[in-house]
Amino acid sequence: MSESVMCCQQPEIDFVVLDRIIQEEYGGRREAMIMMMQAIQRQYRYLPEEALIYLSQSIGVPLTKIYEVATFYASFSLIPKGKHILHICTGTACHLMGSGGMVEHFAKKLGIEPGGTTPDMKVTLETVNCLGACAMAPVVVLDETYHPQSTVGLINELLDPILAE
Amino acid sequence: MTSISPAPDLSWTRKLSRPEDLAAYRNQLIAEQHPDATRILVCCGTGCKALGALDLLAAMKKAVTDANLDVKVAPLVKRTGCHSFCSRGPLLAIQPQDIFYQKLKPSDAAEIVQETIIGGKLIPRFLYKPPGAKHPIEKRSEIPFFAAQTRVVLERVGQIDPFDIRDAIAWGAYNGLVKVLTEMKPKEVIEEMKISKLRGRGGAGFPAGLKWESCARQPGRHYVICNGDEGDPGAFMDASLMEGDPHAVLEGMAIAAYAIGSDRGFIYVRMEYPLAVQTLSNAIRQAEDLGLLGQNILGTGFNFKVSVSTGAGAFVCGESSALMSSLEGKVGRPRPKYIRSTEKGFRDSPSNLNNVETYANVPKIILNGGAWYASMGTERSAGTKVFSLTGNVNNVGLIEVPMGTSLRHIVYDIGGGIPNRKELKAVQTGGPSGGCIPIPKKFLDINVGFGKLAEIGSIMGSGGMIVMDENTCMVEVSRYFIHFLVEESCGQCTPCREGLTQMERILTRITRGEGQEGDIELLEEIGTFTNSFSLCGLGTSAANPVLSTIRYFREEYEEHIRDKKCRAGVCKALYYLEIQPDACTGCGVCKKRCPAKAVTGEKKEPHLIRQDLCIKCMECYRNCKFDAIAIR
């Protein structure tokens, strides 16, 4: 329990890191805002409010505009993600090979909707529109490792030890 | 996965300061290569990489080193882009012996070096054997999947190391750029493009030469933008080009910049393609180091700087005006097109946006002439087109064929037909906004081109081609695409936002067995409305999946609504699975595979499925070798 409370707290924001991203990598250019936000998300695995406020002040873009961008693009998340991320490809080829049923199965198993995270912050379930690896359909990516020709059984074997941790 | 630093250090190389330096440098590079050296080309495209190709690459390199071969003829193990035969990965080619080995493991590396490289013998179990054939095919060039293609834009993909510009230059990269810089005026470049009849490969098919011309005419600073936001699910042509031959795209953009009078370019790549971002960024750096991009290119005074920008996961950003807005760091909402982006686009300046494949064609057109390009394909659709052939087809992969090639040739000769003795039902083209072409009813012999596909209610799109067998439910497919579009609609115009939402609601109801009389007519009405009154190209084609499936598969909709039956075995509420006792041998595969433990039965006795436990995941159905499981 104490661990899950820890996870949900606002992370410590390192402004030196933010400055490096905003000023050094992207020269403080407003046009690079989406890529700055991606870099921030890579750092914290989501977009912490405090970091976005700092971004807004640094490049002079109203926070409402940043919020608009953060909610428009599918890759941005305003809430923390789990320790492990289970991506199920729902591109057409994967869909034909039954990825829809897999999403349903794991949503039920984990008790969350796609896009959601288990309450213990262990696993986030995500769908992705196409990974361009259609020959391997259905493709499941667990923590950036691709699992070609996935089945419910195969993924369960990988997921169960994580859930039992 | 093994991580290796793929890019060689070129900082020692001197800048090429005159146009003729490129030819000299190229000759020098070719002379450095031993003419008899064996080259082992390991495919490291996204597909093969997912299957562990980087480990195979490392193992091959190690095996070659371990074998301690004579340095002069030591084979060169090369990391390349996609070889396009994705369903056979991980794979490699050995040249000049013309050998193709497939479905490899890193542990096979030592054997390949010992037997084939040193011993000169083929290893039959690594060779490709077509489905149903008795003997494997010994030569790569004789495999129908490769032999039946015409590779123009994909020529270097799979041959060169995408991380090493020297390899690309040895294969002729940037020769087209040198030609325009030394021999052609910008107007002549545009004229050549018009003669080529190249139409945009992103989907809309607008003639590239005309677009360049209208952009060049505008006053102000011009921008060259490359659309690498390949959002159509089931399409990976542009990914393979950017990953396998980034210099073709960059050279095409530089030629476009010269033609329209621009000094600044951007490539917008979707964030799901990290490898493409890597290859392109590296290619730009190396080209700048050599003086082939950046300031004062080859000492001619022509400047062109290119940057890579990544998307953030929005399908609509593949639409040109939305893409430019996203490039400015804003949300990607399309805008009305009464002012074209060639007039006011990125930063409100004249912008020429083309797709990855369009740009990659440009250097070839410049070198071989527009007339050469126009001689391929058909009258209205010139040249070749890359398709990603996926779905229920034996040979999944990338194919390049002249426009006007028949679907039969694509699906059967190149694609090798449908797996598991199933019937071909439809081919879906053009991504989520495309349509389903029914086969074999009418259209197996249509020639694939812009006009022909539009005529039968689909679109060319960017080149996704998804083959669907009898176990595909057309109602569910259309629900799937509409659901995709509901999620991806930017929401600014009502017909697209509301029309799609309502269509999804009705389709979901039908697939759950709650369809009502009148649903089909209502779908047609909403669909026609959505297509007629939406703002951008995404909205005006959004209802295509519904309208095309109703047009060709109306009886399936009727079955779902009236008989509450899904003949394909997809809509879970509308079928159940049953083991046919006379066909079941009791082999136990289904029992072992069933994740819900719903199959019961003794060995060698007919098995049974417990309907209360069955989750209809189709594992048993897909894996039964005796076709004993029936959809009821």
Automatic annotation (TrEMBL), chain B:
Is Membrane among this UniProt entry's keywords?
no
Q: Which InterPro entries match?
A: 4Fe4S_Fe-S-bd, 4Fe4S_Fe_S_CS, NADH-UbQ_OxRdtase_51kDa_CS, Nuo51_FMN-bd, Nuo51_FMN-bd_sf, Nuop51_4Fe4S-bd, Nuop51_4Fe4S-bd_sf, Thioredoxin-like_sf
Task: Name the SUPFAM superfamilies on file.
Answer: 4Fe-4S ferredoxins, Nqo1 FMN-binding domain-like, Nqo1 middle domain-like, Nqo1C-terminal domain-like, Thioredoxin-like
Write the record's keywords in alphabetical order, separated by commas: 4Fe-4S, Iron, Iron-sulfur, Metal-binding
Query: What region holds the 4Fe-4S ferredoxin-type domain?
Result: 575-604, 605-632
SMART domains, per the entry: NADH_4Fe-4S (SM00928)
User: Molecular function terms in GO for this entry?
Assistant: 4 iron, 4 sulfur cluster binding; FMN binding; metal ion binding; NADH dehydrogenase (ubiquinone) activity
The record ties this protein, via CDD domains, to:
TRX_Fd_family
Keyword 4Fe-4S annotated: yes
Instruction: Say which family it is in.
Output: Belongs to the complex I 51 kDa subunit family.
Protein name as it appears in the record: NADH-quinone oxidoreductase subunit F
Classification lineage: Bacteria, Pseudomonadati, Thermodesulfobacteriota, Desulfobacteria, Desulfobacterales
